[in-house]
């Protein structure tokens, strides 16, 4: 019926045409993509598929310049492990308490808002590292206004630092460099400046355009100056929002809480969010029953750049999903259902990643040649042992590749990597996926297999591959 309407032909005629090509359908049956292509062609139409997100995007009207007021910048801290991301976030969080706001920041909700001595505010995304940043960018969401790239002065610009810089540049997010640990005897901040200069990133004190501040995240030395520089950067961005409209924003994180149901941290980017509002985010919706800030205080509303946790959604949206306010619950439900249905159809259509069983099947059809594994384990020794064993399993018909092998829990980044690789799959040894990674894997259709006996892992892949090869013969 929908298709007939789109093509402006009588639905009976469409059903008749379908029957003539051997497809028996009822008026409200959903057709697969191939059938739609075929029948549309019959009627002289060509088809183009728009993603569920695009099709169901909710557009908000633009604001009038006069309604806009300044909003706090949203800042992410990125850098190499151990260079001091957590220490900096903790220091800022704790001194802000001393700076005299009622109630300390008592809970990690994924973001927090601090007030500086002069009353200006900064919102920090409290998920150190660029995993959240990447995850959100993958969903096309730009939450961060400014990135602080932190580099330890007793070390150098590391691969992760470079990656973080590349992410910020790709997202067109201005960077402020924080050269950390200058209290340490071996600190050599000029070496960091030089490392950066070699990457064509000339800092201000060397005549370049990038702001840079020496700090000690441990003692707090230079942190005030760093905040000053962040605010200066923010001023140039002229960040504004209209607090007097329905809220829109992004999901920072979401989880299921035993006592409270689904709990989502949201960051308002425009408008004001109120208790009682009907929120739709991704494929979930609900009326906001209660809101709390990072100080665990119950609040009635959240203004632009203010992070809050909300209770009342009927599921846990993904980090980076945008949220909107609907007039009625029915409207929200309809959009959510439609998005869910389209998501299901789309995942059926575009399964990029495969289970072992499916791989066996594809191999039997002679159309499969590569198995891309991501190996995560608790020790480097296990990573190497597994990687070696897996690679040796390669045959003429199937090449087993380990595209990434590392120590640590299975992260969202691993899932993302697997989802972009051809037939990507994750093997974990004595490690588990994080809750967020698990959820992302479900959404992206990435298979994660975990083991605690090395031979089980090898046996599994061997057996599966042998099974595949048997089928080819
Ligand atoms: P992250 O992995 O980037 O989050 O790094 P952390 O904040 O966990 O810091 C790693 C280690 O460096 C910890 O042992 C910190 O105590 C230490 N550290 C962080 N900042 C400083 C600093 O400014 N001076 C000194 N001496 N140690 C620091």
UniProtKB/TrEMBL annotation:
Keywords: Initiation factor, Protein biosynthesis. The keyword Protein biosynthesis applies. This is Translation initiation factor IF-2. It comes from Palleniella muris. The gene is infB. The chain holds residues 373 to 845 of 944 of the full protein.
